[in-house]
Amino acid sequence: MTLTSFGPANRIKRSAETHPLTWRLRDDGEAVWLDEYQAKNGYAAARKAFADMAQDDIVQTVKDAGLKGRGGAGFPTGVKWGLMPKDESINIRYLLCNADEMEPNTWKDRMLMEQLPHLLIEGMLISARALKTYRGYIFLRGEYTTAAKHLNRAVEEAKAAGLLGKNILGSGFDFELFVHTGAGRYICGEETALINSLEGRRANPRSKPPFPAAVGVWGKPTCVNNVETLCNVPAIIADGVDWYKSLAREGSEDMGTKLMGFSGKVKNPGLWELPFGVTARELFEDYAGGMRDGYKLKAWQPGGAGTGFLLPEHLDAQMYAGGIAKVGTRMGTGLAMAVDDSVNMVSLLRNMEQFFARESCGFCTPCRDGLPWSVKLLMAIEEGRGQPGDIETLLGLVGFLGPGKTFCAHAPGAVEPLGSAIKYFRPEFEAGIAPASAAVPPLARPIVVGA
């Protein structure tokens, strides 16, 4: 994993004025511990929030800044915070950090937790103050062992400095923070499945309403935010709404900056903090350096395996939610993947759908049975055993598993790349259909779903 400076060929230095998330990073990639973090203005925003701002003012500031969730859904953070109960008699509330970064091709939260653990802690501390939560959990992907080690050390440093625990900064406010490592399930990226897992239950999504703000972990009001989302909070509090909004490019409806990246057979795969509204072409050509010699860009995904495929002619789209929606898919996590011209799309989709099928919690029928069905059809097409009508069946599954048809968003995200791949690369799927003379009558072709 690399994190490149904010500019082609590292010519532009990161600064606090332009890179609120990454300007404190060390050039050697080592973690920034408490002394260095405070020397770089760390916890100044927390001190301001505790000394000079009412709790409701913190919520309003985050809302006015236009901060949205950075985990993929893009829900307005201030609006989510505003859903927490105003009743002061409810004195048990929880703040959960979703650090279960299981989206394929996404590693932005890992970088923040490994190299800037105190930035996340400060973001959670300010958020806890705003939400009146007395306890927080960082629900961490189990495979992120280095992140767990660094976060636990940072928590202990913050406790020793009086920045966590009882009577923080002499305010009378108490906040405990714990690092909880999960068992590794993609579905835990869904906030209610995460809550069930934290409680020791099976990681199934819950029915909503009630929403976590009303009935969350252990039945108490709970707010769940992504790592990158929480890491934006200190800069907003420290430098204000107008400055934060000014970071985005003209035309972007999303505010601030975003950790974006490109992987695949590009010359300079990496992760960069860029303003919302930068074009995908700039990200691909100026930062990722374009394709390696001998390869051509065939397709790309803008933000993880659960986003639709786009073509090279879509690279002029702006990287923000509305900009990517204009070309037919979602921005997702903002970490793009380049697919080169040597890749067979049927094989790629079979691999993706196998992952999504295995990660289904199995709670609802369309997801539990539909995703394995798509895998069986894709395997047959990949091996040249596809039958007439298989592509139409796959497209039918894309519809049956789409938004609003399943209990959570797992299945809609799983079939979005499938539908786009058939749309743009149908001949590759048709090439795997056996000649009509070799076709097996449909009634003689039982499909054992989930086998």
Question: Would you mind describing this structure in some detail?
Answer:
- The protein is α/β, with parallel strands linked by helices.
- The chain folds into three domains: 21-245, Rossmann fold, CATH 3.40.50.11540; 247-340, Ubiquitin-like (UB roll) (Roll); 345-444, de novo design (two linked rop proteins).
- Helices cover 39% and strands 10% of the residues.
- The protein has helices at 34-39, 44-52, 55-65, 77-82, 108-115, 117-131, 145-160, 191-198, 227-239, 241-246, 280-287, 321-325, 345-359, 365-382, 390-400, 410-430; strands at 94-99, 135-140, 176-181, 222-226, 257-263, 270-275, 297-301, 335-340.
- The strands form two sheets. Strands 3-2-1-4 form a four-stranded parallel beta sheet, sandwiched between helices. Strands 6-5-8-7 form a four-stranded mixed beta sheet, with helices on one face.
- A hairpin with a 6-residue loop joins β5 (257-263) and β6 (270-275).
- Residues 1-11 and 442-451 have low confidence and may be disordered.
Strand order of the largest sheet: 3-2-1-4
Beta-strand content estimate: 5-15%
- Please work out how many helical segments DSSP would assign: 16
Q: Are there runs of 5+ residues with pLDDT below 50, and where?
A: 1-11, 442-451
Count of individual beta strands: 8
**How would a textbook summarize the main sheet?**
4 strands, parallel
| Helix content class | 25-40%
CATH superfamily of the largest domain: NADH-ubiquinone oxidoreductase 51kDa subunit
Radius of gyration: 23 Å
